[in-house]
Amino acid sequence: MFANQTIQTFLEKTASGDPVPGGGSAAALNGALAAALVEMVARLTIGKKGFDAVRHRMQEIADTCVALRDTLLLDIDRDSDAYTQVLAAYRMPKGTDEERAARKSAIQAAFRTAASVPRDVAEKAVRIMGLAGEVIADGNPNAASDGAAGMLAARMAALTALYNVRINLPSIEDDRWCSDMRDAAARMEAEVHRLEAAITPSIPIP
């Protein structure tokens, strides 16, 4: 599993000529890193003098980030597995009508998964951006740059994941399904830019 590899091994594998891990896995990794950074700022706020009013909310954010971080780590491998399924489907036999029909069905299912996994990653990353905004605005100002790093890592995760959604849609023959996915991707991209514009001016860095 890529999620269990050392950072060095993961980077070397990404840099190799193998197609996995690729951009989708990188998006999930950046999302997990973003969650960890936001969680850190929340924990650096909990128990600090002057932050009693937000202690409960910061604990909620920290707990939420634990769950998001764990699921995004799984998404690193889910994304790579999805691409592997696409390759496996294309390798299926196509000598008879039945084989061609089974192969086509498998290809379509694999591409749906390949689009759905990064959609899930993008949704989580957008959520992390919102949490980053909270810890930047209400958390320990000494960790504001870490909150900003978390927000930017989440932004990268979301936008990269959305590229991976869109690149798979032309291979899917269900027009309604693809239209719904494109609409969802457009909404999430707009939310990413809205959050960035709203959060950036609040970062207390001279």
Explain what you see.
The chain is an all-alpha fold and 206 residues long. It has helices at residues 7-15, 23-45, 55-90, 97-138, 144-168, 175-199. Helix 2 packs parallel to helix 4 (97-138) and helix 4 packs antiparallel against helix 5. The protein is elongated, with a radius of gyration of 19 Å.
**Largest sheet properties:** none
Helix content: over 70%
Oligomer: single chain
Task: Report the count of strand segments.
Answer: 0
Instruction: Catalogue the unreliable spans.
Output: none
Radius of gyration: 19 Å
The shape, in one word, is: elongated
The whole-number mean of residue pLDDT values reads: 95
Number of helices: 6
Distance between the termini: 42 Å
Report the β-strand fraction as a percent range. Answer: under 5%
Order of SSEs, N→C?
HHHHHH
Structural class: mainly alpha
Which terms summarize this structure?
mainly alpha; 206 residues; elongated; 0% strand; single chain
Describe what is shown at a glance.
The chain has 206 residues and is an all-alpha fold.
Topology (elements, then pairings):
Blueprint lengths: L6 H9 L7 H23 L9 H36 L6 H42 L5 H25 L6 H25 L7
